Hints:
Elements: H1 10-30, H2 35-50, E1 56-60, E2 64-67, H3 69-81, H4 85-111, H5 113-124, H6 127-130, H7 142-155, H8 161-174, H9 181-193, H10 201-221, H11 242-246, H12 248-260, H13 281-318, H14 334-355, H15 369-385, H16 392-410, E3 411-412, E4 415-416, H17 421-428
Antiparallel strand pairs: 1-2, 3-4
Amino acid sequence: MSSKINVNSKLFQSLIFLFGFGLSLWMFTTFQLHYDQEQILGKVHKLIALGEWTHFGNRGTGVGYIPGTLLTFLAGVPMMIWYSPYSAMFLILLTHVVALICFYFPLKKFFGPLAAVGFLILFWLSPWRNEQVELYNPSYLFIFSGLHFFSALKLSRERSFAWTTLHVFAMGLCGQVHFSVLILMVASLLLWIFKMVKVNWWGVLFGIFLTALTLLPYFLSLSSLQGHGVELKASEGFLPGKNLVLIYPVLKACIYWLRYSSFYYARHIFTSIHFDWIANEGLRSIVSTVFHVIKWPIGIVTLLVSIRIQWQFLKEIWKHQPFRRSTDRRNLSEESWFFHYGFYLFVGMLVAAGLSPVEFNHWHLLLCLPMSVALVSVGVSRWMEKSEGRKKWILAVVVYFLVYNSFAVLGSRYHDFRNSYHQQVLDRFPITTPHTE
């Protein structure tokens, strides 16, 4: 690969996809079992060993338990087929594939193959995405980002019952995975208020009805939660809306939006990568020093690139007066509609961050990651289109991601290549008398 890289090549794009897929499969095997994973695995174990469904989900940060029927289903059914965490994690990886598809083809249609390939690389190979294949609820969020964007895009052109139903139902399911669905809900409200979509109200009602059906087991089980050792408690976090007063939590959310499309990753895959797997102490010290010295300027430079690109897009959108209701934005060009969608999702994130009873961390905002990456992919593709020679950076980014992901898997806060995650789970949750009827 050189400046003559053919980004239209099916071989090139297939290799990128396979690299990302393979890195995710490798990550499956090296996880260290922790509390968030045990919450889901405990419910799956109860389902398979005792035949008991658990209808409450993981404990949210300071906000109690989320509805859990869907999570138990998503993790439990694959593990019924093969009792291994890898089967449930493989389903998570497939949801990431769906999210990739939802953004890849519109990007290719609107902005050309270079923007689509940029997204393929920056999303699919990124440690931000690869690290999210573990068995905990935020890992399922990317598919809801994709469905929200894609269904909204369809509704910008037609008042469809089916696409409206999918749009609403996807948010209903997302709310059963993570309470950060508030971001999508606010964004959808803004899309409607500022005339970005054509809403079929029968589709809205049917989407709500389908959501209520999936929540029925959860509501029926509320009275018996005490019997399961679970208590519904009031929020232990901030009062709702306090983040608007404190300001910093909202600014922190903005920073995460910008970081998602950079190489400045979350702490456990940025500052916590270690090289204990290198036996020679001298070599280990050299490799560790070189890696940690190089990653900081790369992380900072790419963060600055993300800031510059997204600031340019913000200024471009602002010229169109995005908060003026008299404008019918359903007639925008596909390119302009895309940028407006990104803007309203960003505003939705700010509102959710302000209303949240807790201070957001990176996993609370993962719904925004694909769109942040997509915007930067468009900006970078425009820069590359000005000179064929700039495409040489594609190879550098691919190599960096492959090396970085490999180091994260070999040794970091949640990974150790000497670990067998499959065996660790079986030791913690053994199936001695499988439930059969």
